[in-house]
Amino acid sequence: MSSPPERVFRLYQWNNCSYCYRVRSAAERLGIALELIDTTRNVEAERRLITKLGRATVPVLSFDCAGEEQLLPESADIIRFLERYVGAGFPADPCSLPRR
Ligand SMILES: N[C@@H](CCC(=O)N[C@@H](CS)C(=O)NCC(=O)O)C(=O)O
User: Fold this and answer.
1) Residue ranges per domain, the chain?
2) Fewest 10 Å CB contacts: which of 4, 20, 33, 49?
3) Which of 41-45, 57-61, 90-94 has the lowest mean pLDDT?
């Protein structure tokens, strides 16, 4: 059985954010480790979201595809994506999975 590689995913989030909590809980249930990036304490990360997505709304899932950071906003889409990732057997490269 496959097991999840460490730190494939990062999550832009705040601690006191219910949508972020939903994503963190789903990741825990699915056995996926997330590197948490608190955008209230990381101005550079918040600016990156605004530049790439036009808003600083969290949660946003982040992972690399061919060296480029991919950003997936919307808690429901993130949870579905993580479920697909587990269903696909924790692929080392999650880039081919549908985002939505
Ligand atoms: N539909 C979004 C809602 C996310 C949301 O409203 N996030 C709040 C924090 S819990 C936020 O970032 N608000 C500040 C903003 O939108 O700039 C989702 O499900 O992820």
Assistant:
1) 9-91
2) 33
3) 90-94
Say yes or no: CB of residue 56 within 6 Å of ligand 1. Answer: yes
Return the CATH number of the domain spanning residue range 9-91: 3.40.30.10
Which tokens belong to 87? 């269903």
pLDDT at 3 over 70: no
> Which phi and psi (to 5°) does residue 18 adopt?
-65, -35
Tell me the best of 12, 47, 57 to mutate to test the pocket of ligand 1, counting ligand atoms within 8 Å of each CB and taking the most. Answer: 57
Compute the distance between CA of residue 39 and CA of residue 46 in angstroms, rounded to an integer: 5
